Amino acid sequence: MLTSQKLKKFAKAVGADLIGIAPIGRFVDAPADMHPCSIFPETKSVVVLACRLLKGSFRGIKEGTDWYSYLIYGYGPGIYGTLVDATYRTKKFIESFGWEAVESPGKAALYEMGPERAPVADGKLPPDVTISMRLAAAAAGLGELGHSKVFLTPEFGPRQRFAIILTDAELEPDPLYEGILCDNCMKCVYHCPGRAIGQKKNITAEIEGRLFSWADLDYGKCKLTHWGFNKDASPFMVKDLPGLSMDVVEQTMTWREAFDFGHTLAKEVEYIALTAKGNSELEHGGSPGSICGARGCIQACVEHWESRKVDGEL
């Protein structure tokens, strides 16, 4: 018999750092294009796995000496290799008990991008339906969304990435996290080189009476900075495109426009071109790891998080 306790023990044994379980009822207010049942109608439980993003992977960008560290050791075979393996093995574990395990698409920005194709048939939603990883993690009791929309857990602060498994097994759920992890220090706002994070928490979502809130984000400024086209976050654009005068803070591009702009110019910037070699995602329309090193939304948050732990606030 599959139980929540057995599942959690197994998932952690194969590499997951955290695991939480939400009942499908917590997604009652989710729109159809973000609802688990739009992917797997028989869903009874939503299982969220997390792997920690190692603190040391930011050091190269922080010191301005090794931009590869965040892309390769933070993401790449590091966190995502471990998370992919843990998720696949956990799905096999669930199905070994006779249940079905369906993984949700893992594109965090897909909702901002919008559907890339029309519905495959009348009455169907456009591909690809995707669940908000942050709200799924909140529904699974793992923590809360911080001011910057980056998810915070009591174990690792803003340093984790998630995978979602939908199953028809009715598992004992975890309670929603009741503590307060984000103290609205605004360090994420002040340290974001793209000035992409708003000052006020004006976006909310309610799950079983618990209100989660975060700031409005300028996804265009975020994506341009992520690409490395912000002179305040990356030295590569200035070096390789000295004639391009672009103040990211003044830009009004949408996420899609910023993504396409970055991909068009990527081959002209030596560092991004180097990361493209052997990077199938970048070669086929993806983007490189965050060249800004998540200076505001993660790095500044981590530093504040660590200081609060030292002071005994957490």
Describe the structure in your own words:
This protein is an alpha+beta fold and 314 residues long. The protein has a domain at 4-180: 3-Layer(aba) Sandwich (NADH Oxidase), CATH 3.40.109. The chain is built from 14 helices and eight strands. The protein has helices at residues 4-13, 36-39, 59-63, 68-74, 79-95, 110-113, 133-139, 187-191, 219-227, 236-240, 255-265, 270-276, 280-283, 295-310, and strands at residues 18-23, 45-52, 101-103, 144-145, 151-152, 160-167, 197-207, 210-217. The strands form three sheets. The chain has a four-stranded antiparallel β-sheet, sandwiched between helices. Strand 4 (144-145) and strand 5 (151-152) form a beta hairpin. The longest helix has 17 residues, at 79-95. The radius of gyration is 20 Å and the shape is globular. It starts with a helix and ends with a helix. The relative contact order is 0.15. The mean pLDDT is 87.
